[in-house]
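hey can u check if this looks right to u? its 224 residues, i copy pasted from the old doc so theres a chance i mangled smth
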Amino acid sequence: MTRLFIPGLLVAVLTFSLVYSTAIRQGHADTPIAESADLVQPLAVGEPAPRFIVETVDSEAFDFNPAKLDKPVMLLVFRGGWCPYCNVYLSDMRHVIPEIRALGVDVLFLSGDRPELLYDSLEQQAQEDTDELDYTILSDANAQASIALGIAFKAGQRTIDYVNNKGDGYRKSSMERHGMLPVPAVFAVGRDGVIAFRYINPDYKQRLPADELLAAARAIAAAD
């Protein structure tokens, strides 16, 4: 067991270095992290979507490369399973995700939780809803996708304490690692790699309604 520790650590360091070096060349990754949610500078409609690397539930690298999309993609960014509003939102999405997929649009959920907590940190109802529809939830615990999209901001100590007090298993999210949170957001990227739709609201209690998400997907599918 001891012999495996150093190589494993080296791989982790190299992986983080790859993710960081990739992200700083894309999107808004060269923009300073916003001091608060209402000061973020998200990428706009018409701008090229950034390339970034996140992780699957099995801690495998997932390369989001907008230059190689087979179909339009909707990126739904949420804070993590510790957030009750995020749980409600994920459950609400079950009403429209099948129809969005039927339109030929992929849906990817990006969470601030570390890979092994992507599903376990969700509330029971949200777990059941995501399992039923086989949601693709990816870990942005290194915050590189949020940085590249321009929606990362410095988390307040009160929020960090709230998450850490829920149990040690909730540690090492994007907050624990870097003191950052994403503003919950939706970005739709066309096959051309350009952002075709976005929804940003600094108030984490306000999310894009399911019917409006579906309407955006229909418009993107029709234009693609």
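Residues 2-223 form a domain with the Glutaredoxin fold (CATH 3.40.30.10).
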